[in-house]
Write a structure and sequence with these properties.
The structure holds two protein chains of two kinds.
Chain A (H helix, E strand, L loop, with lengths): L15 H9 L13 H5 L1 H4 L6 H9 L3 H6 L11 H5 L6 H14 L5 H13 L8 H7 L13 H12 L3 H4 L6
Helix pairs in contact in A: 1-7, 4-7
Chain B lengths: L1 E5 L4 H5 L1 H13 L2 E5 L17 H18 L3 E3 L2 H16 L1 H12 L11 E3 H9 L1 H6 L10 E4 L23 H8 L18 H5 L1 H18 L4 E4 L2 H16 L9 E3 H8 L4 H4 L8 H8 L3
Parallel strand pairs in B: 1-2, 1-3, 3-4, 5-6, 6-7
Helix pairs in contact in B: 2-12, 3-4, 3-5, 4-5, 6-8
The chains are: A mainly alpha, B alpha/beta.
The structure holds iron/sulfur cluster (2 copies).
């Protein structure tokens, strides 16, 4: 979405089926929103100055603006902090709307590249964050080179991969699960 | 001896093993036997499975929870995201038995089961509730000697409160971490942006400059209202932002002061006599002044 363009809402784009999809993907209370703005008053995304912040995301979701939501990267800047869930007077659980939009976006591969990097690391190593050179850092503080997590146990890591293979990851991962 | 399962996550063992060293030292000093959760993985992080699907998230978390269940221990973590992701997955499975059922079908294929018997702690609530402030005080070798602390509890340690077994009386006015610092001899005043987000995490990867600007706003308030000797963290992601992120702001000439940052487990471990070199090995902003103040106090 272009900066400044967010104020124009084109209702011809409204897609009722997208609202249903979001509800199914976890945004169960989406339609309860009264646009009071309390979520935005406490949301780090809004405070950091992201143009398309939580109240607007909820509004767009309620209008079924599929393309607007899937093209804008704001939902990926959400901190998962749940301040909005805590504060919303209508119990919309705005964070769950964010997750629903992300889930819809993942299905059509409309997400930032680093999302895949995290998923690939999670599948391959059992760790979404897997930075180079950690062995040296660990040795420096007298810890074993590898932590006793899945990274140290091939058998267990394979079992964990079996678990992931039975999830939706199997369908949507743009990398081989082998 | 009481036992506890230490959930490492990713950032602590790989980026900040000094926090892992400190947590291990601290738990031992407090009389806990650390049970290794062999084969544990990422919590999973919010940008991964939780952003794909609820059942997939729950299954990935349940893998970790079931490891602790098999060993009959509760879990403790120093990372806010791990605390949030594991507890939220747990909450969803309790609230929706059909999700738990689907998860157990998945786990059964690798010979595992999720029951829901393990509690997930963070260090703040553990020190405050399970250990207790008086008990904590009695284990201190080096009093903090009036060290002025600005505390950062961390979002995931507070919200969503519906998912947490224990919490602050008022999550928008947290006091537990302040009380812990004060029990060890520090001074930890309230400040107006105490619950503001540090900006680390998804925001930092999606909009790096805005994330750091948000963080700077918070830091400026801390400097003006508290002017602390140190920022004390309840979350390892906040630690990355307050330490390496702050160093980056200084390097970019966007900040003209430096306040060192320390995780509560590092601070408590040092107060209990941990090896200072190891306990602070990865700090980007030197903690020498903080250590001198603590060690000079005895
Ligand atoms: S989601 Fe809740 S807090 Fe946000 S605008 Fe709607 S009703 Fe208000
Ligand atoms: S969970 Fe996301 S949308 Fe909700 S307040 Fe936090 S950053 Fe904003």
């Amino acid at each position: 979405m272009e900066e400044g363009g967010v104020n124009v809402i084109d209702l011809t784009q409204a897609d009722e089926s997208f609202i249903k999809e979001l509800v199914e993907l976890g945004a169960e209370e989406l339609r309860e929103c009264i646009q009071c703005g309390k979520c935005a008053s406490t949301c780090p995304m809004a405070l950091a100055g992201l143009e398309f912040f939580i109240k607007r995301i909820i509004h767009a979701a309620n209008l079924g603006l599929r393309d607007v939501l899937l093209e804008d990267s704001s939902v990926w800047g959400c901190q998962s902090c749940n301040r909005c869930v805590e504060i919303c007077p209508m119990d919309v659980k705005p964070y769950e709307v964010i997750q629903a939009v992300r889930r819809a976006a993942m299905k059509v591969e409309s997400c930032p590249a680093n999302t895949y990097e995290g998923l690939r690391n999670l599948y391959r190593f059992g760790h979404a964050v897997y930075p180079k050179g950690y062995e040296e850092r660990r040795k420096k503080v007298g810890l074993p080179e590898k932590p006793p997590t899945a990274i140290s146990f091939d058998e267990l890591r394979k079992k964990y991969q079996e678990v992931l293979k039975q999830t939706i990851l199997e369908e949507i991962a743009p990398f081989p699960l082998d | 001896m009481k036992k506890i399962g230490f959930f490492l996550g990713c950032n602590i063992p790989f980026n900040r093993p000094d926090v892992e060293y400190s947590a291990r030292y601290l738990l031992n000093e407090l009389g806990y036997e650390i049970v290794e959760l062999e084969g544990a993985t990422c919590c999973p992080a919010f940008g991964t499975m939780p952003s794909l699907d609820l059942v997939g998230w729950a299954a990935a978390s349940a893998w970790n929870l079931s490891i602790a269940e098999e060993k009959g221990v509760d879990i403790i973590t120093g990372c806010g995201s791990c605390y949030g992701s594991l507890n939220e997955a747990r909450y969803h499975m309790e609230k929706h038995p059909e999700i738990k059922e689907q998860v157990n079908k998945i786990l059964a294929k690798v010979g595992k089961e999720y029951k829901g018997t393990t509690k997930v702690w963070n260090f703040i609530n553990f020190l405050y509730e399970e250990v207790g402030l008086d008990n904590l005080k009695s284990k201190i070798k080096y009093n903090l000697n009036g060290l002025k602390c600005a505390v950062q509890t961390g979002c995931h340690n507070l919200w969503p409160s519906r998912a947490y077994p224990t919490n602050e009386e008022n999550t928008f006015y947290p006091t537990r971490l302040r009380e812990i610092c004060e029990a060890m001899g520090g001074v930890a005043p309230h400040y107006s942006t105490i619950t503001d987000c540090c900006g680390m995490g998804a925001l930092r990867s999606t909009a790096s400059e805005k994330s750091l600007a948000l963080f700077k706003k918070k830091l400026d308030v801390i400097k003006e209202e508290v002017d602390p000797d140190v920022n004390v963290m309840g979350c390892s992601s906040c630690l990355l932002q307050f330490d390496a992120g702050q160093a980056l702001l200084v390097e970019q000439k966007k900040l003209d002061y430096k306040i060192p940052a320390i995780h509560i487990v590092q601070l408590a471990a040092i107060a209990m006599g941990a090896d200072v070199e190891k306990a602070t090995a990865m700090a980007s902003i030197p903690l020498n002044g903080v250590i001198t103040k603590i060690k000079g106090g005895n």
